Amino acid sequence: MNITIISRSPQSFIDLCDNELVNEKNIHCTFNISNSDRDWMIEYFKSKGGETFSSTINHPTL
Question: Whole-model pTM?
């Protein structure tokens, strides 16, 4: 079963990853993300066992 967690803030995203709540789950972020932030977020998310990363709002630079 695919479970998607919704993250509404950068701190929420970090907390979910730090506490390893993303293992074998997808995450969708609804806050503004720059391209450079998106890169490290995906890397961190994958290192914690996350499956698929998606976001609603992406900005090349903030």
Answer: 0.88
